[in-house]
Known about the structure:
- The protein is mainly β.
- It contains two helices and seven strands; from the N terminus they run ααβββββββ.
- It has helices at 47-59, 70-79, and strands at 102-104, 114-129, 135-156, 159-164, 174-179, 183-187, 190-204.
- Strands 1, 2, 3, 4, 5, 6 and 7 form a seven-stranded antiparallel β-sheet that branches.
- It starts with 46 loop residues before the first helix and ends with a strand.
Amino acid sequence: MGNGRIPGTTDEIDGEFEIDDGTGARTETPPPGPIGLDASSGTTTSAGIADRILGFARRQRGSRVGNGECYTFADRALSGSGARSASDYGDVTPDADYVWGSSVSLANLQPGDVIQMRGYRYDREVSVNNPDGSGSTDTDFQERPHHTVIVESVDGNGAVTVLEQNAPPGSAVRRSQLFFTGGTTTAGRRTTTIRVQGTFWFYRPQSR
């Protein structure tokens, strides 16, 4: 998520604080810090707020928002849409697991929600077996050691399309597909196996 500078230092860019701490590998997955809203009534928000968050996020594709940190991208999307941001739920420090609203499950995830990640990684292996006995195997992976994304669409089977900034480090806002459940599926001669690790939290932004 960035260089891990403490808010309030002289390492500020465009008036935004550097609060993210990079995208290098982590070996530990600590529990979340701040706690969000626990009331069951807090799991819904107006469609208008979600639409505004998503509209803002989509309009930024290809652009650098503020200081380029993933936190700044999410913070501006929520704050400018009339929603509470992470600073409303706890201290914003370089290594915090930011809270962005009420906790929801993957099954209830919706466009405009926010995902906070810690030590996240998925590995995907796609194998093709041909009738003549030949075949091939391709692998890829994505990792987000400390990161925040905005949900654009929920694609099913644990796949979520997100809008994010600073992944890889220094990148502008872009669209990515990430996976939050693992498993193996077969379609014809193609078998896909996905493994997921790390900790992630799903949040429904709440109005101010």
